[in-house]
Amino acid sequence: MGSHKIKAVIPAAGLGTRFLPATKAMPKEMLPVVDKPAIQYVVEEVVEAGIEDILVIIGRNKNAISDHFDSVPELEVKLQQKGDTGRLERVMKSSDLADIHFVRQGEPKGLGHAVLRARTHVGDSSFAVLLGDDLIDERDPLLTTMLDKHVETGATIIALMEVDPSSIHLYGAAAVEATGTDDFVRVTGLVEKPAAEEAPSNLAVIGRYVLPPAVFDILERTEPGKGGEIQLTDALQELAADPAGPGVYGVIFRGRRYDTGDRVDYIKAIVQLASDRDDLGEDLRPWLKEFAQTL
């Protein structure tokens, strides 16, 4: 089973309340990170991993996302006439990336509910779920490793990252057992946003999952949990606890991740990515050093 058979699902139906008023008429996944909307980084990551079929779960401000991934002939013609091939390539890239489909979530009933909306499109095969709040640096492999591990084990695979114990309360934390393979652990349980002293580890769940189709049946009958939402975590718990199933494993990611989930982290992500870019870093880095001196 090659990874190209696997479809990817990108839930993008959140309300983005932390970014109001920017998200009043635009989904937060469309907020630019430097000069590309956040969701395009995620789509590019999926394509890099060899997946060609993507389903985006959209909310009420959906048109911005579907418009972005559509071709814009008049813009392409204008850039062509200007001889602006660099920008033309960048614009065309976003519409030629992959086969992108859209489905509405309807009511925002949580991540589990959004994933459930993918059932008809995904059918009876494994699929990857990628959240747009976590941008993974294109130089650091993660999804490909997760897909390989899934093919090897048949298990549910989630992405984990070591965080400072003082900030584990912001994440889902995983209880894990070693497998004998570095940075690959068996997940025995998950605790949503635990207090530091109650956390089973400092391994935080970040927004990448490779899920078996069995997850749909579990989500169908999962009662709404925290905040009246159907939680994906509850379904993962059940998969981890099933003695007859292949279980849940975690890939520990040690690469670069940019968090766009809250305003300060979003600004840090932009600064980090821009500083590292060939076309912007040279001007930005010296200015940043000077600016930092004045603080």
TrEMBL record:
A molecular function GO annotation: UTP:glucose-1-phosphate uridylyltransferase activity
InterPro entries for this protein: GalU_uridylyltTrfase_bac/arc (IPR005771), NTP_transferase_dom (IPR005835), Nucleotide-diphossugar_trans (IPR029044)
Reactions mediated catalytically: alpha-D-glucose 1-phosphate + UTP + H(+) = UDP-alpha-D-glucose + diphosphate
Domain Nucleotidyl transferase: 7-274
A Pfam family that the UniProt record links to this protein: NTP_transferase
Keyword Protein transport recorded: no
Keywords: Nucleotidyltransferase, Transferase
EC primary class: transferase
Gene3D superfamilies assigned to the protein according to its UniProt record, in alphabetical order: Spore Coat Polysaccharide Biosynthesis Protein SpsA, Chain A (3.90.550.10)
UniProt-listed Enzyme Commission number(s): 2.7.7.9
Gene Ontology BP annotations: UDP-alpha-D-glucose metabolic process
Family affiliation: Belongs to the UDPGP type 2 family.
NCBIfam families cross-referenced by the UniProt entry: galU
Full protein name: UTP--glucose-1-phosphate uridylyltransferase
Organism of derivation: Microbacterium keratanolyticum
Lineage of producing organism: Bacteria, Bacillati, Actinomycetota, Actinomycetes, Micrococcales
